[in-house]
Amino acid sequence: MKTKAIVYSVFLLLGIAVVACNPQVEIPSYIYVDSVSFSCLNTQGSASYNIKDISVTVNGDARGSYELPALVPVLHKGSCKIQLQPVIHLNGMSHQRVVNYTYSLYETYHDLVQGKIDTIRPHFTYADQTKFYFIEGFEEAGFKFSCEGASLNKTSDSSILLHIPNENNYSAGMITFGENDTSYSFELKTINPVYLTSTTMTICFLEINYSGTQSLEIGSYFHHSTGRSTQTAIVHINATEQRSTWRKVYVNLTEAINNAGLQMTHFDIYLKGYRESATSLDTFLLDNIKVVYM
């Protein structure tokens, strides 16, 4: 972080030097976003988030997306309306960067001065229009997923739980393979069908926190009015370095739902995992699974 701040200062000084050599060049103002924060209501599950970039608009002028921390030059001065939107990596892929419209828009007014840096730290929540089809935080009795193969259990081991500030994280879902287990894989599937179609939503994500020694496959079984069923594997979440390392992923259900066609009536979400070998001691940890849509 300090290195990037030093680099930004150097670029700022170089920009001023260029302007001094060429008076016809307009001096920009600068917006600096070093970090963002996020919170949600108790009824909306965990406030875990993974915002990598920020989209910037100044007085209606879209400046594009910038990796955080971001120094954004703008040719505006005086009182300006600044709008910031969170950008996420769909399916955990850095080349699939999109504005997450299920999160709120951050809007503020700043008095921009040429050659000066204004620091903004936006705070986001879920947008008012965002709906939740289900939330599985593994804190309540029972599960929202059935399980075939290895067993799904809950763990309260604080050394491996995902700890989020101002939250009480008591448990997470866990699938383990031991030396004497005869199972080589597992599949979780939503107990209740998801009745979302291309005509009832415009955006749909599955949010999940994952930690595991092997990759996790996430996909859907789509059921059609004709009686036909199809399976779509959407993403593979890579293994993490250790059990206490967690990865937050936004799984893009929107495209899969739209591709399923107008005859699709409902679908089931599945999560699959495989042990590395017949004797490997593999662990899969899951938490904060949500289906959010607009």
The biggest beta sheet reads: 6 strands, antiparallel
Low-confidence stretches: none
Structural class: mainly beta
Strand content: 35-45%
CATH topology of the largest domain: Jelly Rolls
Q: Tally of extended strands?
A: 21
CATH architecture of the largest domain: Sandwich
CATH superfamily of the largest domain: Galactose-binding domain-like
Shape: globular
Helix coverage percent: under 10%
Mean pLDDT: 92
CATH C-level class of the largest domain is Mainly Beta
**Can you count the helices?**
2
Give the total of domains.
Answer: 2
Our Rg estimate from Cα atoms comes to 23 Å
How far apart, in Å, are the first and last alpha carbons? 35 Å
Give the SSE string.
Answer: HEEEEEEEEEEEEEEEEEEEHEE
Could you please describe the fold and organization of this structure?
The structure is a single chain. The chain has 294 residues and is mainly β. It folds into two domains: 2-124, Immunoglobulin-like; 131-293, Galactose-binding domain-like (Jelly Rolls, Sandwich), CATH 2.60.120.260. It has helices spanning 2-21, 253-259; strands at 29-33, 37-38, 53-58, 61-67, 70-74, 78-89, 97-99, 106-112, 117-119, 123-124, 131-136, 145-149, 153-155, 172-176, 185-190, 204-212, 216-224, 229-237, 247-252, 264-274, 283-293. Strands 11, 13, 14, 16, 19 and 21 form a six-stranded antiparallel sheet that branches. Strands 3, 4, 6, 7 and 8 form a five-stranded antiparallel sheet that branches. The chain has a five-stranded antiparallel sheet with strand order 12-15-20-17-18, with helices on one face. The model has no long low-confidence stretch (mean pLDDT 92).
